[in-house]
Amino acid sequence: MDALYNGGAIPSNEVSLQLCQYDMLHESFINIGNTEITPKCGTDGKSVAWVQSPTNNQFSINIKSILVNGKLVELPDEFQKKTRERWTRKLDKEKVKKKLQANSPMFKYNYNIKWEKLPTVSIVMFAQTPVTYDNSNSVVTIKLGPRDYMWKYDSEKCKYLTILDLL
Q1: Are 102 and 84 in contact (CB under 8 A)?
Q2: Closest CA to 165 of 142, 149, 146, 153
Q3: Per-domain residue ranges for the chain?
Q4: Does residue 63 contact residue 123 with C-beta atoms inside 8 Å?
Q5: What 3-state class would DSSP assign to 128?
Q6: How many angstroms separate the Cα of 16 from the Cα of each of 12, 30, 44, 58, 74?
Q7: Cα 67–133–1 angle (5° rounding)?
Q8: Which residues contact residue 4 at a Cβ distance below 8 angstroms, ignoring those fewer than 6 apart?
Q9: pTM for this entry
Q10: SS3 at position 80
Q11: What is the pLDDT along the chain (167 residues), one digit of tens a residue?
C-alpha cells in the first residue's frame, strides 16, 4: 500500500473493504485507494472504522470476543499471545470433518452440507480509529454465516476461514 501511494498510483493510502452477506456476495469488493463511497448491501457506504496499516506485510487484529450462534465462546488463555511462528492449530482437516459429521451438518459419504445446521460466528474486535458516533466505543463486530466461513469447492473438499483454526 505504501509503495502504491508513495509512487502516486493511488490517491490515498487507504483500502475500502465492503463485505456483504452470502446472498449479496457479488456486491462485495475491495477498493484500493478508497476512491469512492459506494452504498451497497443495504449500507450507506460510509466507513465505520479505520485500522492502521502494518509496515511489515502482516496484519493482526485485537479480538475482544468470539460468539457462536450469539453465545460467547470462552477463549483459551494463550489466545492471541503467540507469535506467528508459534501458532498451533487446535483442529486439523480430519478433525474438522469428523466434528461436522458428528453434528450431522454433513453426511459421511456424499458430503452434502446441511447449511442450516451450521452456526453463525461473530468476531468482536477493537478498531483503532472509529469514524462514527455509533462506533465511538472502538469495537467492531463481524457476523459470519456458514457460507461466509466455509466454502465447498467440489464434491469432497471445503475451505475454511483461517481464524477457525485458532478456536
Answers
A1: no
A2: 149
A3: 1-47, 61-167
A4: yes
A5: coil
A6: 11, 6, 13, 18, 31
A7: 75
A8: 10, 32, 33
A9: 0.46
A10: coil
A11: 677 778 887 777 777 777 777 777 777 777 777 676 666 677 676 666 665 555 555 555 677 888 889 999 887 776 666 555 555 555 566 766 676 666 655 545 555 677 788 888 888 887 665 556 665 666 778 888 887 777 666 656 665 554 433 33
Give the whole-angstrom CA distance, residue 132 versus residue 49: 8
Q: Interior CA angle at 5 toward 4 and 8, to 5°?
A: 90
Residue 129 is placed in which grid cell?
480509529
How do strand 63-68 and strand 71-73 relate by DSSP bridges? antiparallel
The cell numbers describing 126, all together, are 477493537
Residue with the three cell numbers 458428528: 102
Going from the C-alpha of 118 to that of each of 92, 115, 164, the distances in angstroms are 18, 5, 13
| Beta-carbon count within 10 A of 103 CB | 12
Q: In what order do the strands lie in the sheet with 139-144?
A: 71-73, 63-68, 121-126, 139-144
